[in-house]
Specification:
Bound molecules: fe (ii) ion
Number of helices: 5
Number of strands: 11
Helix content: 10-25%
Distance between the termini: 22 Å
Length: 220
């Protein structure tokens, strides 16, 4: 964890956490999740359900977050003390195009701060943003042979109306160099703010499916 992480989080709304997460736990989790029956359409399971499913213990899930400086970074970003809520955290599967089940859709552009927000059809009326942080950790290398994330590096301090979230419109609103689809290696993660726009990054030539963890932190 470094000053650079704090700086990019505040200036760009996202920071890359390089090689911070225990590859042993991540690989074990990836292997055991192979037996998990993901619900169709969402292909996501809340992390607090994984222990009862015999996939991984709550203690191991929380141990992944025991990293020097992470708590300080989270507290500075929100700001104030934060707590991980495993009920609103997810193990997610995203498919390579050739493997995608019928009705599956990759995530489209959204802001995690829209969690629980209730929109009206009026674009001028936008609900307040939920204050939370997302720490996204793939269980494998991703972004080249398997789906990753694409983000817009802009620290937005409020929600956009859902009518503003189509790809063409966003590319007209933000400069091309703001769009970022990083290739991550096992052990890397991304930390981003509630207003940061992101979606699944998938290309036709990708052949591997991807599993990832998505921890959510809320003010205490
Ligand atoms: Fe998200």
């Amino acid at each position: 964890m470094s000053y650079t992480n704090m700086q990019s989080l505040s200036e760009q709304g996202v920071t890359l956490l390089t090689g911070l997460f225990c590859p042993g736990i991540l690989t074990r989790l990836k292997n055991s999740a192979g037996t998990l029956g993901f619900p169709a359409i969402s292909y996501a399971v809340p992390l607090n359900a994984l222990e009862a499913a015999g996939i991984v213990s709550i203690a191991e899930l929380l141990a992944l977050l025991e990293i020097d400086g992470l708590t300080d970074l989270l507290s500075a970003a929100l700001p104030g003390p934060v707590q991980c809520d495993l009920q609103h955290s997810w193990l997610r599967k995203r498919f390579a195009p050739q493997n995608a089940p019928r009705l599956y859709q990759p995530n489209t552009w959204h802001q995690d701060g829209g969690l629980g927000a209730s929109f009206t059809p009026d674009p001028a009326s936008v609900p307040p943003m939920n204050r939370l942080l997302t720490c996204w950790i793939p269980l494998q290398d991703c972004g080249r042979d398997s789906p990753g994330l694409e983000l817009i590096r802009e620290p937005l301090d409020g929600l956009l109306h859902y009518t503003e979230l189509d790809d063409l419109r966003l590319r007209q609103s933000f400069a091309p160099d703001r769009f970022w689809a990083p290739e991550l290696e096992l052990g890397d993660g991304l930390l981003f703010l509630p207003g940061t726009l992101h979606r699944t990054h998938v290309r036709p030539e990708m052949e591997q499916d991807r599993l990832s963890l998505e921890y959510r932190f809320f003010p205490v």
